[in-house]
């Protein structure tokens, strides 16, 4: 079924590869529930929803497409869900889940109609969106680490780094970043574990109540999305933003992973479709937008080449729900350094922007800056698209503007004018 011999691999290699990928991205089980708890959702229920939906989507990827990719709730998008859509824009988390569901249905429609929407978006704009989301994640991580605090005079300032919580985060940052720099497999996960142990030994964090227990009840978030909220025009920009950012992320990550795994690009649209189905399932179960994780590259590096790797990863996802006591005992200060480092990796996309061309660089700058400064991806898309079109027209380069960009800019202007 998985063509192991043709791909020059075996069951043992695929198992080890799956274990490598799982430990590399397992930090998401710590961070995603914490982010969504800040939106008013139950921590334990979100933990189970994250693991189950990720397991189902990853299983589909392995069985249907024979690819060694892991799918689960995406970093950056979870912070946008909680801190922007819910806490800043004021939507209930049930409405936010409906927006996640609708955006995935849009992606699925695009795939079924064979519309290559990603080609309509300028390369600089794609990279700026990912970089802006990364900077947003860095900002949230620094707040959770107590490195940055509110200041009525300067808006933000450095925190008191002599406090125990900040010291734990400082330790975690140095340990985790050192492991990442040394290319230690599962370095971010090991950094979280090491920081948590130090926090517990120092008496800052309580010891877990146990190791194994039956999973928390997921009913408080599962199937709670408010589809009626989609009739509210104010939610349209949110759906649109999620649609664009998830689609662009998938095109980039699936392409990169396929090349690394030696897979053809012929199944790109199907892989995006599987992710969209998984994302819709995730919204139904009660979690934020799902992506195909670039951390899957660690498993590919360990020899994973087929969908059997994904099947094993899915199995680990399902098993993880029984370790809730251990996961829930991890303090946010131990997870915050991972947010900062993942944000740094996303911010590196800025290197692909042609900074010598001001018609590309200025809109990219506005996009990257607007996302964290306003806690909104949709604002970043709006400001960046408007600036892009204006500068291309001023520079007499209208041929470089795809018609879809005019649509994006128009919808953004209507949103800024409170028409949408």
Could you characterize what this model shows?
The protein is built from 17 helices and 4 strands. With 420 residues, it is mainly alpha-helical. It has one domain. 56% of the residues are buried. The mean pLDDT is 90.
- Helices and strands, in order, run as HHHEHHHEEHHHHEHHHHHHH
Helix content: 55-70%
Please, what is the average pLDDT?
90
The end-to-end span amounts to 49 Å
What percent of residues are in strands?
A: under 5%
Can you summarize this structure?
With 420 residues, the protein is mainly α.
Describe the SSE topology.
Blueprint: H1 11-25, H2 28-37, H3 43-65, E1 71-73, H4 77-86, H5 93-112, H6 123-144, E2 148-151, E3 155-158, H7 164-181, H8 187-201, H9 236-261, H10 268-285, E4 290-292, H11 296-301, H12 307-320, H13 324-328, H14 332-347, H15 358-374, H16 377-394, H17 403-416
Antiparallel strand pairs: 1-4, 2-3
Helix pairs in contact: 1-12, 2-3, 2-4, 3-10, 3-12, 5-9, 5-10, 6-14, 6-15, 6-16, 7-8, 7-14, 8-14, 9-10, 15-16, 16-17
């Amino acid at each position: 079924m998985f063509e192991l011999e043709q791909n020059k691999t075996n069951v043992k290699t695929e198992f080890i590869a799956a274990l490598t990928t799982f430990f590399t991205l397992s930090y998401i089980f710590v961070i995603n529930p914490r982010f969504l708890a800040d939106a008013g959702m139950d921590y334990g229920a979100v933990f189970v929803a994250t693991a189950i939906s990720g397991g189902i989507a990853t299983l589909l990827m392995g069985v249907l497409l024979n690819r060694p990719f892991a799918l689960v709730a995406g970093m950056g998008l979870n912070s946008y869900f909680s801190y922007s859509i819910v806490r800043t824009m004021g939507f209930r988390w049930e409405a936010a889940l409906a927006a996640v569901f609708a955006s995935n249905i849009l992606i699925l429609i695009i795939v079924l109609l064979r519309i290559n929407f990603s080609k309509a978006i300028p390369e600089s704009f794609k990279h700026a969106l990912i970089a802006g989301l990364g900077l947003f994640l860095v900002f949230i991580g620094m707040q959770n680490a107590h490195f940055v605090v509110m200041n009525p005079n300067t808006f933000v300032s450095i925190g008191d780094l002599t406090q125990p919580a900040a010291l734990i985060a400082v330790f975690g940052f140095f340990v985790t970043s050192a492991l990442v720099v040394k290319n230690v497999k599962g370095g971010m996960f090991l950094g979280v574990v090491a920081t948590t142990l130090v926090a517990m030994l120092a008496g800052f964090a309580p010891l877990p109540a146990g190791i194994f227990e039956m999973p928390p009840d997921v009913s408080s978030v599962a199937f709670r999305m408010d589809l009626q909220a989609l009739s509210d025009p104010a939610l349209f920009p949110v759906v649109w933003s999620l649609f664009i950012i998830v689609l662009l992320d998938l095109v980039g990550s699936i392409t990169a992973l396929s090349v690394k795994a030696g897979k053809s690009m012929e199944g790109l649209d199907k892989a995006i479709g599987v992710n969209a189905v998984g994302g819709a399932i995730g919204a139904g179960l009660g979690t934020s937008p799902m992506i195909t994780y670039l951390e899957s590259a660690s498993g590919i590096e360990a020899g994973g080449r087929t969908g059997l790797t994904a099947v094993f990863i899915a199995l680990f996802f399902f098993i993880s729900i029984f370790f809730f006591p251990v996961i829930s005992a991890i303090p946010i200060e131990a997870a915050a350094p991972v947010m900062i480092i993942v944000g740094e990796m996303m911010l590196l996309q800025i290197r692909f922007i042609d900074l010598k061309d001001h018609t590309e660089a200025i809109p990219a700058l506005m996009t990257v800056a607007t996302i964290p400064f306003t806690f909104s991806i949709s604002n970043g898309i709006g400001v960046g698209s408007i600036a892009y079109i204006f500068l291309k027209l001023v520079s007499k380069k209208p041929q470089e503007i795809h018609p879809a960009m005019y649509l994006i800019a128009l919808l953004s202007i209507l949103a800024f004018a409170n028409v949408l």
